[in-house]
Every structure is written in structure tokens, then in C-alpha cells.
């Protein structure tokens, strides 16, 4: 009996040893070497194509199953519940209502027809709220074989259920452990190498090695996410001594962009593991970290950003002007701070393919670790990145107008909705200033109508009657 136990133990050790060797070989040959040498073996592309074919087959099976049960396979309303016409301003809407009602009042008071506009806008906001819709997970038109989206596709047969079970084993039994090991390895190597580079004197060699270490660390993280990124218009890649602004979906946006070139990051000093990584990063690259008390000092933040952007030898600053994560269907209001500095702005648009996994971080629902585990347990992280031409502030244009112009160009490139709402509405109520602004616009309309009618009446009184 003892001899049998020893034999079983030896067999188990051999199996574990073989497994470790296989894992290490895969980690080193297929992932580590390409990450360091900046080459691609084409495995990701084949993997993504295979997943697309599987998803198409799964969708076809769901449609056939729904037809057999005499049920309609309904697709989600990806473009909204309501069919909205081209948005008009408050003035244009009121003018249209008043012209249709043929209202002629001599006093600046509202017409009963004006109520129709406010009622319609209120009902539209309740039924199809743009703000709430921007902070919820996207609905998929086809099932991606993930458990988190299984409730939206009830018409599943036996074959799809078995395929889903196989997918669970692959994602949690193979992909997730491999990704976690790769991420830990990449972070460990990055901290060690970045700290080592920090001991070198300030020179071109230190800058060169620091940039290479950062790129290697970011590419390790990209490999650990099984990210497939397509970069467009590389000739517009941000230059040194500038600011790069991008739409924000997940904290991993930093890794997605830094995989192509190094950036100087701006953020608050943290503790723990994240603080350790921050301290290692700043030793080999000029990042901008603020203490908690300094973040509220706008003048200090602006000064440090200006000083950094004025140095043409330093990497471009990466900023997400929305200030919060949005679900990649729209672009919320850009904060004007980064547009007041006066340097060149390089807009970058990021668009994720949610068929392979939900990249949106709903921070009010999931913590950061939970969010990372959700992405690592998904099939892949697929996205496209567009580098837009550099933009500068025009003469007579203030920071708010400049921010709106950049946001509009970014949204148009990525095919996202351009919204004027503040991303802070994700956690706070509408500010009184916004309500007062709407009231001011309406009062100006009333006064303008009154002045126009008064001028018309004076003109009629002054016009002599015909003979």
C-alpha cells in the first residue's frame, strides 16, 4: 500500500512538472519573446476569427430554436427606443411651436403651446434617458457564450448549452490562469527593471531604457488581456511636448494606448500595490503624481501640466477629459482644464468590440479587481484606436469651445454619440446652474418674442394707410 502511494505521488509530481514546463514554454516562447521583440505571431488574429465564426453559428442556432418554438427572436434597441429627429435648440423648437400656433401676444408670457415642448422632452428623458444609458452595459445582438449575457438569449438548445459549458472550462481553466500568471510576471519584471533604471544618472540612456521598460511592461499587460488592438493613422501619433486626450471606457485605456507609445500619466498618489507600481514608474519616466491635498489645487495642477507640456523632450501627457468611464456608446462633456494650457492637443478615439467581452467599468457596481477579473475571464479585449490630426486653439475660441470641437471630432471618428451632459451625473444630481441655464434660455425667448412683436406693432402704426 505504501509503495502504491509513493508511485502515485511520483506520477503526480511528474505530471505537475510536465504541466509546469508546458506552461513555462507557452509563456516564454509564444508570449514573452514577442512582447519584448515587438513582433506578432498571428495567433491572436486566428483566435479572433475563430471566435467570430463561433458567435455567428451560435446566433444562427438561437434564431432557429426561436423559430421552432414559434417565438420571435428580438434584437436589442442598440440605437435607442425612440426614433428621434435631428435635435433642435430650445429657440428653434419654440419658434416652430409658436409659428404653428400663430400666437400673437403683446406681453412677455409663455404660450400654452410651449408646454408641449417641455412635456415631450420630459417623456423622452424618462423613456430613453441618454445619461443613464451611457452608464449601463451594452446590449448584444448576438450571444458571445458568456454567462453574464446568457439571460438575454433564452432560446438555447442542447448543443449551445454544451458549447457554453466548454467555453466556461476554456476561459476559467486555461485562459484565466494563464492571464493571471502573465500579468503577475509582467508587473514583477516591470517593477524590478523600472526601479533598476531609476538608479542610472539622468541621460539619454536612462530615457531610452525607461521607455523600453515601460513598453515591455504595457505589452505584457496587453498579452495578459488577450487584447487585439488595431491602430489607425499612425502618422498622427502624439508627439513630445503635447497633450493627448481620449474617450474613457476602462482604466485599461491607458494600457491600450501605451502599448503603441509611451505617455506621461497624470493621477493621484495611491498606496499598496498600485502605489508601488507608481513609484517604480516615476523612477524611470516623468509621470505626474499628485498628493490628495494637491489634486484640489487647480492652479498647482495647471502649472505642473504647463511645465511638462512646455518641455519638448518629455513624453505627451495622457488625459481623459470626461473624468469618468462611459460605456463606449457616447462621449460625455470634456472638462476644460486640459484645454486651457495652450499647447497642441492630439485627440485619440477608442472603440471596443463588446462581442468578445464588456470593457466598460461600472465603478458604482464593480470594484477594480472585480472588473479586471471580468475582463480576464472574457474571450478577449478587441478594440480600434484612431489617431486624429493635431488640433490647436483657434483665435477667439475659449477653452470650452475648444473642448467641444475636439470632442465632436473624436466622437465622429469612433461613431459615438456626442453628448453635452457632464459625466459627473453618474453619481450626482443635476446642478442648479444647468436648470437655471434652461430657464434663462426660455426667458430670453419670451423677451425676444415680445420685442419682435413690439417692433412689428410700431411698424404697423407708422405705416400710412393707402389712398
UniProtKB/TrEMBL annotation:
Primary location class: membrane
Example of a GO cellular component annotation carried by this entry: membrane
Keywords from the named record: Acyltransferase, Lipid biosynthesis, Lipid metabolism, Membrane, Phospholipid biosynthesis, Phospholipid metabolism, Transferase, Transmembrane, Transmembrane helix
Phospholipid/glycerol acyltransferase domain sequence ranges: 242-353
Biological processes, Gene Ontology terms: phospholipid biosynthetic process; triglyceride biosynthetic process
Annotated Pfam families: Acyltransferase (PF01553)
Keyword Amino-acid biosynthesis assigned: no
Domain of life: Eukaryota
Membrane-spanning ranges: 20-43, 180-200
Subcellular localization(s) per the UniProt record: Membrane
Protein's pathway: Phospholipid metabolism; Lipid metabolism
GO MF term set: glycerol-3-phosphate O-acyltransferase activity
Family per record: Belongs to the 1-acyl-sn-glycerol-3-phosphate acyltransferase family.
Entry-linked PANTHER family: GLYCEROL-3-PHOSPHATE ACYLTRANSFERASE 4 (PTHR23063:SF37), PHOSPHOLIPID ACYLTRANSFERASE (PTHR23063)
Entry protein name: Glycerol-3-phosphate acyltransferase 4
Organism annotation: Oryzias sinensis (Chinese medaka)
Organism ancestry: Eukaryota, Metazoa, Chordata, Craniata, Vertebrata
Amino acid at each position: 500500500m505504501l509503495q502504491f502511494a509513493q508511485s502515485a505521488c511520483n506520477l503526480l509530481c511528474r505530471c505537475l512538472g510536465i504541466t509546469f514546463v508546458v506552461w513555462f514554454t507557452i509563456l516564454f516562447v509564444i508570449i514573452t519573446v514577442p512582447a519584448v521583440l515587438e513582433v506578432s505571431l498571428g495567433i491572436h488574429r486566428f483566435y479572433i476569427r475563430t471566435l467570430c465564426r463561433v458567435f455567428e453559428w451560435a446566433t444562427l442556432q438561437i434564431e432557429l430554436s426561436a423559430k421552432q418554438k414559434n417565438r420571435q427572436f428580438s434584437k436589442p434597441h442598440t440605437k435607442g427606443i425612440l426614433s428621434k429627429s435631428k435635435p433642435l435648440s430650445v429657440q428653434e423648437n419654440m419658434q416652430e411651436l409658436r409659428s404653428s400656433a400663430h400666437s400673437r401676444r403683446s406681453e412677455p408670457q409663455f404660450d400654452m403651446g410651449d408646454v408641449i415642448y417641455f412635456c415631450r422632452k420630459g417623456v423622452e428623458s424618462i423613456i430613453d434617458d441618454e445619461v443613464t444609458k451611457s452608464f449601463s452595459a451594452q446590449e448584444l445582438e448576438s450571444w458571445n457564450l458568456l454567462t453574464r449575457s446568457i439571460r438575454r438569449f433564452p432560446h438555447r438548445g442542447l448543443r449551445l448549452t454544451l458549447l457554453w459549458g466548454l467555453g466556461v472550462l476554456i476561459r476559467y481553466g486555461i485562459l484565466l490562469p494563464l492571464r493571471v500568471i502573465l500579468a503577475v510576471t509582467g508587473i514583477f519584471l516591470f517593477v524590478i527593471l523600472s526601479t533598476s533604471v531609476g538608479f542610472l544618472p539622468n541621460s539619454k540612456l536612462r530615457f531610452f531604457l525607461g521607455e523600453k521598460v515601460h513598453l515591455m511592461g504595457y505589452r505584457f499587460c496587453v498579452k495578459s488581456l488577450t487584447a487585439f488592438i488595431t491602430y489607425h493613422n499612425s502618422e498622427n501619433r502624439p508627439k513630445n511636448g503635447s497633450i493627448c486626450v481620449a474617450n474613457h471606457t476602462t482604466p485599461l485605456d491607458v494600457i491600450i494606448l501605451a502599448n503603441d507609445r509611451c505617455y506621461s500619466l497624470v493621477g493621484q498618489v495611491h498606496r499598496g500595490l498600485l502605489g508601488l507600481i507608481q513609484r517604480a514608474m516615476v523612477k524611470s519616466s516623468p509621470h505626474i503624481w499628485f498628493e490628495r491635498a494637491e489634486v484640489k489645487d487647480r492652479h498647482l495642477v495647471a502649472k505642473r501640466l504647463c511645465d511638462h507640456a512646455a518641455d519638448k523632450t518629455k513624453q505627451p501627457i495622457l488625459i481623459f477629459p470626461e473624468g469618468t468611464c462611459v460605456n463606449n456608446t457616447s462621449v460625455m462633456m470634456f472638462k476644460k482644464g486640459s484645454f486651457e494650457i495652450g499647447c497642441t492637443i492630439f485627440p485619440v478615439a477608442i472603440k471596443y468590440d463588446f462581442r468578445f467581452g464588456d470593457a466598460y467599468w461600472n465603478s458604482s457596481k464593480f470594484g477594480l479587481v472585480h472588473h479586471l477579473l471580468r475582463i480576464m475571464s472574457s474571450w478577449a479585449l478587441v478594440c480600434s484606436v484612431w489617431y486624429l490630426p493635431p488640433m490647436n486653439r483657434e483665435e477667439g475660441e475659449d477653452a470650452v469651445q475648444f473642448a467641444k470641437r475636439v470632442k465632436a471630432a473624436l466622437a465622429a471618428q469612433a461613431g459615438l454619440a456626442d453628448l453635452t451632459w457632464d459625466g459627473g451625473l453618474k453619481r450626482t444630481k443635476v446642478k442648479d446652474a444647468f436648470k437655471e441655464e434652461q430657464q434663462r434660455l426660455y426667458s430670453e425667448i419670451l423677451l425676444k418674442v415680445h420685442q419682435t412683436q413690439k417692433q412689428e406693432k410700431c411698424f404697423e402704426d407708422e405705416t400710412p394707410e393707402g389712398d
